[in-house]
Specification:
Blueprint: H1 5-18, H2 24-31, H3 35-47, E1 51-54, E2 57-60, H4 64-71, H5 74-85, E3 93-96, H6 100-103, E4 115-119, H7 125-128, E5 134-138, E6 142-144, E7 149-151, H8 153-158, E8 164-169, E9 173-175, E10 179-182, H9 185-196, E11 198-204, E12 216-219, E13 226-228, H10 235-243, E14 247-249
Parallel strand pairs: 3-4, 3-8, 4-5, 8-11, 11-13, 13-14
Antiparallel strand pairs: 1-2, 6-7, 9-10, 10-12
Length: 251
Amino acid sequence: MTVTVSERREAILEILTEDSHVSVADLAKQLGVTVVTARADLAVLEEEGYLVRTHGGALPAYHPKILERVRKDKDRKSIIAKAAAAEIQNGDTVMISAGTTTALIAKYLLGKRDIHIVTNNTLLLTYARTNPQLRVTLVGGEFRAAEEGIIGPMALASLDQFHVAKAFIGIDGASVKQGFTAHFVETADLVRKMAVQADEAVVVTDSGKFGAPGFARILPFDGVDTLVTDNELAEEFKKELATAGVRIVQP
């Protein structure tokens, strides 16, 4: 079976996640390609921000959990993030919470002008650094590598300084009874605060999060203005969200 370039690079990330000491020669052997091809793949992955080159090999640039989440449902996440970015207008001030889908919003802001982002999402910087029209304020606090985010009391307190037009928030789960939820209390507190500091709260997530609530409640359905998701959201949730006054965007 023929392996595509994309599949081969996915395999490289999986190999390096399991063993970061693999040499370029070993990678080439495992993948059945030349050393020149393996080096070219590593160069592309480094340029895309997935890894850091070392002498004779490479290291993953992110925590294994983040790499797994970044690779999962990439096309779906990109479609959702692009639709979320379309909600941002020239001159807007926005907050963007930590998350792999929310980080991609910055990627799709090319061509827009004078956007100021307040965020705890360190993964977002991968895309924001190449766009001179984006001004990014990164909140202070404790860095959590498994989330590529800044959390803690300092991060929460710093959000009091800002007021924005829109907050784009990620979630870990959702249910009719619990509303929008997160896995950790600290995360829920921070995301909720972002929503409070904004004129409009926008949840950005795939439909798979619905029906699987997390541990900590962020907001009830009626605490959010807009949901940007994929086209597979169950009718049950569409009805509940509509009743709560949530506008649903499904690209």
